[in-house]
User: What shape does this take?
Amino acid sequence: MPVLRSGHRRGLELNPVFWPCLLGFLATSFQVLILREFEVRFQGNELVYGLVLAFWLLGGGLGSLLAEKKFIGWLTPARFYRGLIIISAVLLLLLRFSRFFFAVLPGELTGPGPLFLTAWFIAFALSLPLGVLFVYNVLWQNGNLVAVYQLESLGAAAGGLLVYLVLIPYLSSWQTAAVVIFLTGPGMALASGQKRFFTLALVLLLAAGFWFGDGPAEKLYWQPFRLIEVRDSPYARLQVIKTEEQVSFFSNSSIAFNFPDPAAAEEAVHFAFLQRPEADRLLLLGGGLNGTLSQALQYPQVKIDYVELDPTLVELARKVLAGEPTGLDDPRVTIHLVDGRKFLRQTPGRYDLIICNLPEPATAQVNRFYTVEFFAAVREKLSADGVFSFLLPSSETYLSPERSLLLASIFNSLKMVFPVVEIIPGDNNVLLASTGRLETDLESLLAKYHLYHLQTVFFRPEFLRSRFHPLKREYLRASLEAITNPSLNSDRSPVSYFYQTIVWSQQFPGWSSRWLGQLQQLKRWWLFDLPLALFLLILFIFTVYRRPTQAVFLIPLTVMGFTTIVAEVALILSFQSQLGLVYSRISLLFTIFMAGLFLGSTLGRKLRAVLRAEHLVAVQTGFVVLLVLARLAPGASAAIVFYLLLLAMGCLGGFLFVVSNVIYLRYRLRYGLGYSLDLFGSFLGALLATSVLIPLLGLELLFSLLLLLNSFCLLFILGRLYLVK
Assistant: This one.
């Protein structure tokens, strides 16, 4: 393999600070925008996030390796960055209209096949040139890899701060892209020499196209449906479709609710109220905008606390449904715009009824409302004889093994907390839980129904008789009992969202559903013991390999890449479970980690002249100590704990990158190898973390795995230093 020259005659044409900073700024900004657009177009779950991020990291790693093969002399920085912005714009456009390539309707579920192909193409097409650019920036900087990494980290932190905390909360993905492109314009124009006016015109044209084209493009996406409103919030893109009979609200192109929807509203409310029709206080967690509030208000004495996470959704419903009987303006309804789990932790009140009317646990975020810890928090806020109720999609006539596994996991998690639990079969199973009595006698329930003269369309006596049919109840009971030793769903082992992913995949028969089904059967040996054994074997081979080489000191980079991305995701999930989902705080976690990378690389740059393998031992020891602390973090109740852990992890990661590369570059000038190994480790972490490791291993065992991997890596470094001469 040819060794690249450390400099190039065109390296003198550029500002030594601007281009590396711009690389980090654009990489982070467009990564966030691509992920957010995937979330909107592919109704994102953990599989979507994992695939897109994994392909992004893999493309960056391959790009940095390819850049070592060939240096294209005519590609000046200005030309390369102009091309990068054009590529980014084209890919965002293709992603917006990707449904047309796969002939699916708006709001229709897209299978794993189209998701895989789109994630591979979009992420690779953008991240691969970004990986090439890293190496080219090093060459343009006369081989100063440490400075490029430091400045790229600074640009990434700035991009994260701007996009996460300033732009995304108020703008759409395309509008954010317009601002990002516009902000790069003046600097690129000044650095473009004779092409400055062309560069500025190109930037302004692209920025204007994204800013003014967002609305028309969204309407085109939703054809042939009539799109009447689009709003962006920090949590989702909200779309509203109107037909003659209904108004449909979508969140990230997935149906959130219809109005009116009497069947869903009546089912969510009246099964719970027939248990305690005299209830004075109701806590409704989500799902109140489809008529559920109006149904609950039929009970004249009840006062309702309605909790909804997204203020934009409530504002949009008020506007679109003005004049409709939503119940939002009833004096007996108090609206709380906050995360449901955070509200439960902070409210001093107790409730006769708590109804959780949220979607099924398709993501780790929603899964927090189906865990043992959440059920325990609900029990603490119920009155002495209070009732808790929620729905889970099902079928009256057939339960697949995958659906039965999901139901059994949540049902048994609920039974761990409540002594009395009942489940009523239907296309939506109704789960009821209490510390007191639960009425299952059909005639008693019918008597309560008639007593309150309920105004219902679907929730009628004949409907109740069908739902309480003995054969249906027996079939459901047998299906749940057939699952032996079901895994409990908890904050530290959120297995149910993995089961939900399997249920989702069953709608698209093929390799993906079979593959996910096989993953579910994997035991600890495959996910914990075998990877550790293979890693030990690799380290042993490198330890006894007697030929002198400094390349082995790049191995910690791969371990670091894997460790940081897995630990970052695990800590953020723990943060959400303990402190609630608050967009600004979650965004701050990402930004703090990137700031840590900059601080760590800055320290490494200052010490570059004296860095030795002993410094690698020190930083690897720091990772081991930090992971011991991180293993205890999932139970922490103070936000500062998570901020400090991620800052420290970023600092250690940035410093380790510098130390490993400085040692290796004294041996051989390959500027892309260390960067690619870091990204390959991150690729494995992104691919496996949320989709497999976190739900199947659980957080405690996962942090144990990371701790052992880094401990073995530390022993390997010590062995190479003191055992191999």
